[in-house]
Design goal:
Length: 429
């Protein structure tokens, strides 16, 4: 593969994005210069606007908020704290209505717009979008690489803006953009269909999604699986039993990852009363975490179900190693979930942790094919409990599944899979 200058976009803070980290690292190790453009968050005090991961891989975080919006928000906060300032502003505004209406009317409209949350959110996203494009046009890159649909427009503009010197564009779709939770509008499909006209190579996570793409758009994209790094070094285990204050001999039944809708997590809690042994542990954060904790309290399961916050990506394997078994029980709420390969499945494999998993094609193919766990109906708490009990009541079976994990990790690892990514770049010489 020829050495290239690469500009990659991702719409997050790049603090826990394992796939993007692996891809950028692999490309930089091949001699490419990689600039990753992502988003800064001022609320994260230790987050840097610029950092060097290695000598060829750099991270640039663009500002989340426009400066004038920051000033506006600071002023509104001050006004709320200082009631007399709000009164003074109202008096000035009333005086302006009578004496300077040409200024007062547009300022009233501006303040009203900025106080509407959805409008503020739109303004912030447009600001990030434009900053990403500006950053991407500052250097002479050979290839632009857009991760997911929310950075594909940036990639299209940056790669094709110079009509006489167009650059190559790779679209790396981590999700099924036309069928995923939170993406209900048909606009996303129309947008993806149009922007694909400017893409030179497309990447998806597995062959089920590649076939879906072929049926939808008429071509079969490249497949780069989301496999983790092979953990060749012995990882020191964090004492999860001590952190949770539970007996050393208690089995930990682990879910790690985002606490989000459609992941079958409510069914895990509902299944917990029927577990013959073990403590259900959630490691992660997300929108439904409070609801899940309330469900646990309502069911009087606080002694059987424990919650921990999200941990740094590099530390996660130290927690995973504590688990007797791991869960991947996605619900079939959209094709994105149904077709998932799931990074956490392979993280469990790397730690030698057998799984209780949903009966979806890509996940079942690994779990049943490699004999590393049991497949259940993830929509049915009774089926989940039966799968758990099969493992907790049969330690010899569980240990055999664990041994099979150690064999499977030789196959499902990034050191092997990165060759597929490099092959994609080899196509765009």
């Amino acid at each position: 593969m020829m050495k290239k200058n690469i500009c990659m976009f991702v719409w997050n803070h790049f603090t826990n994005d394992a796939r993007v980290l692996r891809e950028c690292t692999a490309l930089s190790e091949e001699g490419c210069d990689v600039d990753l453009i992502c988003i800064h968050d001022p609320s994260m005090a230790e987050l840097k606007t610029y950092e060097e991961i290695n000598e060829r891989f750099r991270v640039h975080r663009v500002k989340r908020y426009p400066q004038w919006l920051i000033l506006f928000q600071s002023m509104m906060k001050l006004l709320k704290e200082k009631k007399y300032l709000l009164l003074l502003l109202m008096l000035v505004w009333i005086a302006g209505v009578f004496y300077l209406p040409l200024i007062t009317i547009p300022s009233t409209i501006l303040f009203s717009v900025l106080l509407i949350k959805k409008v503020r959110t739109l303004i912030i996203r447009i600001s990030i979008f434009l900053r990403m494009i500006f950053k991407g046009l500052q250097k002479n890159y050979d290839v632009f690489h857009s991760n997911d649909l929310n950075t594909l427009p940036q990639g299209v503009i940056c790669s094709k803006v110079k009509l006489l010197n167009r650059k190559k564009l790779i679209y790396d779709s981590h999700e099924v953009q036309t069928s995923r939770t939170g993406y209900d509008s048909k606009l996303y499909g129309k947008m993806e269909s149009f922007l694909l006209k400017f893409v030179d190579q497309m990447i998806v996570e597995n062959h089920t999604r590649a076939k879906y793409n072929e049926d939808l758009y008429g071509f079969y994209p490249n497949v780069v699986h989301n496999y983790p790094f092979d953990q060749k070094k012995e990882i020191k285990k964090i004492d999860l039993h001590g952190i949770l204050n539970i007996p050393k001999n208690e089995k930990i039944l682990l879910y790690q990852g985002g606490i989000q809708t459609g992941r079958g997590l409510e069914n895990l809690v509902k299944a917990a009363p029927n577990f013959k042994e073990g403590i259900l542990v959630f490691i992660g954060d997300g929108r439904i975490k409070k609801n899940l904790m309330k469900l646990t309290e309502d069911m009087k399961l606080t002694d059987r179900v424990k919650f921990l916050p999200k941990v740094p990506l590099e530390d996660l394997p130290k927690y995973t190693k504590n688990a007797y078994l791991g869960f991947q029980v996605l619900n079939n709420v959209c094709f994105n979930h149904y077709s998932a390969s799931s990074n956490k499945l392979f993280e469990y494999i790397m730690a030698g942790v057998p799984v209780v998993a949903c009966d979806f094609p890509e996940i079942k193919k690994v779990v049943s094919g490699e004999n590393i766990g049991v497949v259940v109906d993830s929509h049915d708490p009774t089926s989940i409990a039966a799968g758990v009990n099969e493992l907790v009541l049969n330690p010899e079976m569980r240990n055999q599944y664990s041994e099979n994990c150690w064999k499977a990790k030789l196959k499902y690892n990034w050191e092997q899979e990165k060759e597929s990514l490099l092959a994609v770049y080899g196509k765009i010489q």
